[in-house]
Amino acid sequence: MPMLAHHSVRAEYDVSKTIAVRGVVTKIVWMNPHAHSWVEMKNDDGTVSDWEMELPAPAALMNEGVKRDFLKQGDRVAVSLWPARDGSRLAHTLTLTLPDGRVMNFPREWTPGRGLL
Length: 117
Prior knowledge:
Distance between the termini: 35 Å
Strand content: 35-45%
Strand order of the largest sheet: 1-2-3-5-4
Structural class: mainly beta
Number of helices: 2
CATH architecture: Beta Barrel
Shape: globular
Number of strands: 6
Number of domains: 1
Order of helices and strands: HEEEHEEE
CATH class: Mainly Beta
């Protein structure tokens, strides 16, 4: 019998902190169990940080009508996220504002059929 497993969002990410990131998409990967995108942002001191954003599973995105090209390398985006507890630049994506101004919402208790846009 197949088994489903999933990591705990609260165990991996600090849900008490919401961070805003604005920057340029450098990479997108559609691979199970989660799609991921990387956003390069310029810090206040002029240095650059690369954030890895966890998204829902590719199948979940496609079931909601999200196409693979919804996000492209070079797109300027704004993202709200929960940062990883370990201090790395891995994050759970809460909202993603696309270049055309549409906002994708990834609520904590996201369920298929609720819609992302």
